[in-house]
């Protein structure tokens, strides 16, 4: 064989080795977090005490009549004009009795995840209105077709543990069509746990009818709900939003678990100081917890305290900042201290391109949130441009990044075998190296993650293989997946029934 032929053969062998699945996954989702503790115990207690004081002194404004009646019956008291205050004992009683864990079901039972405790899972979120076009490399308005493609793509990515719609179909001006077709895109293209938002409360019941068709008949979805609602019932600072509160009531009626998301912005709708921000944001998320548990005690709710940062010079959102990293890590630490299912946001790069800024911001923020033990880490896959954009290439690159993070969370297993005393003696007194030893082979697949996208070749080989960058590698991977992965998760009968009853636009 010629030198050139041998080189091509060796390249094919390397590619085949990279594509092969490991015998043992060294870094699966659900690793244990919580080793990173940015706050001391006294600091957590100070923040929590301040949050309780805020609820006891200021309470919540703009409380809808129905909710106000329920809260007063549970112990809330009138405060300043048109506000209700929450006595400390009332809030602490709710924290003690609230759901500590729940199963986030996938339609495929093997894809379900247990939310709460110390397990970490990466997933998606967001409502990007622009998509980074895979061909032009520039942004354009997101479409319903994009949402279908994003859902198909992430269905193949092991480290995206649940899928929330990542973009808004801006080509659907009618909000009911938007909500219906968003859910249809999710159920037709994945069997993972899914999540969405409801624009209006009256959209919930019809969409549950669609979910019942998917689940097997009337009332079947509520028995094992595989869709979670993302709701922001609190408007910072310290007010309820009536439309979102209405959605909360409807979701509880139909047994739809929820993430109640607080998304205050430092220096705008919350204090600019990080400690003050955490205190107010915690108070607001506790107000959501009190609301949900007043309506139905013990109802599954992800305590989604998402601290957001703005660049105070320009007013621009700064999702990839160091402040975002530390605040979301602190939020996860506080929520886990309260023993509640925690949800935080990370990997919200402000970069527009798949570049060095993109990688640095995603790596810093997502690792911090995971090490702090965020149970569900939202926005962590595919998001770019300060949450205004979603990228196909980012999805596959982020999926690989999550494997590295899970490997870091897994830590170092110190056992007599792993310490390798006998292996060290054998190598020192024998070959003088560890290459090819049984001890090395055993560790090779068990302890190490081998990336499929990242390039670890020396420069000459990289040049020979085309000198491609990460963006190009990811683009090729996405195109292959979208060309071949066309799941059929709805039966013909289910699809026909949904299309008969709803206006499905793709």
Could you walk me through the main structural features you see in this protein, from its secondary elements to its overall organization?
By secondary structure, the chain is α/β, with parallel strands linked by helices. Among the domains are: 95-410, Trimethylamine methyltransferase-like (TIM Barrel); 416-447, no CATH class. The chain has 19 helices and 19 strands. The strands form 5 sheets. Strands 6-17-16-15-14-11-10-9 form an 8-stranded parallel sheet. Strands 8-7-19-18 form a 4-stranded mixed sheet. β16, α12 and β17 form a beta-alpha-beta unit. α4 packs across α10 (274-295) and α6 (175-189) packs parallel to α7 (204-215). The longest helix is centred in the middle third of the chain and has 22 residues, at 274-295. The N and C termini lie far apart (52 Å). The model has no long low-confidence stretch (mean pLDDT 95).
